[in-house]
Design goal:
Keywords: Cytoplasm, Lyase, Schiff base. Helix content is 40%, strand content 16%. The protein is an alpha/beta fold. It has one domain: TIM Barrel. It has an 8-stranded parallel beta barrel with strand order 1-2-3-4-5-6-7-8, surrounded by 5 helices. Strand 6, helix 7 and strand 7 form a beta-alpha-beta unit. Helix 3 runs parallel beside helix 5.
């Protein structure tokens, strides 16, 4: 994977802006940068929708749901996701209740994911953020199994906001081994350089959540990451 061109690497990237102080002008700049870099999508907060995506760019739109704590009622997550799709989102990145995983309430986690899946059926892409850095290996596996059972499309490592940390190669590898190709694996949180990105892809990531996309793609003048 180290021989990926910048254009090829860009197609793995959800160019992300989720900081609370983000403005609509910031999101417009994000879109312009994403188009210039050729990233797969932009990922934004749902209240930033709808977005003005340049015609013919092919840029996808992702929005988060239940972000960043996951401690929302399932009905609220489902409604938030449905509103985001109605406003133009192609993909939803939802946060599970990580505490429910740690409690061993995996049926509740699956039901939570299923509620959002039912609200935003295919072709909307559903990614499930499990906050892997806050879980042990058995819990990571259980969360991934719940996502598979609820017909999600991806499992995702992190919000990027949890103090336990973001993506790790170990977690990505375990997640990829667990879903066995049935779901994609998105690594997010702490990916700052091309080398970080390549390590995650080699570990099994099929999508990357990145705010420092210009730096990852080799632009030395890129602004610091703000994910």
């Amino acid at each position: 994977m180290s021989d990926l061109t910048s254009d090829q690497l860009a197609r793995y990237i959800d160019h992300t802006l989720l900081k609370p102080e983000a403005t609509h002008a910031d999101v417009e700049a994000l879109i312009a940068e994403a188009v210039r870099l050729g990233t797969y999508s932009v990922c934004v907060s749902p209240n930033m929708l709808p977005l003005s995506i340049p015609e013919g760019s092919g840029l996808k739109v992702a929005a988060v749901c239940g972000f960043p704590s996951g401690k929302h009622l399932s009905e609220v997550k489902a409604r938030e996701a449905a509103l985001a799709v109605a406003a133009g989102a192609d993909e939803i990145d939802m946060v599970i209740d990580v505490g429910a995983v740690r409690d061993g309430r995996i049926a509740d986690v699956q039901a939570d994911i299923q509620a959002v899946r039912d609200a935003v059926p295919a072709p909307t892409v559903l990614k499930v953020i499990i906050e892997a850095a806050a879980l042990d290996d058995a819990e990571i596996v259980a969360a991934c199994v719940a996502a598979v059972a609820a017909s999600a499309d991806f499992v995702k490592t992190s919000t990027g906001f949890h103090p336990a940390g973001g993506a790790s190669e170990r977690a990505v590898r375990l997640m990829a081994e667990t879903v066995e190709g049935e779901l994609g694996v998105k690594a997010s949180g702490g990916i700052r350089t091309r080398e970080d990105a390549i390590r995650m892809i080699e570990a099994g990531a099929t999508r990357l959540g990145v705010s420092a996309s210009a730096a990852v793609l080799g632009e030395a003048t890129a602004a610091p990451a703000t994910y």
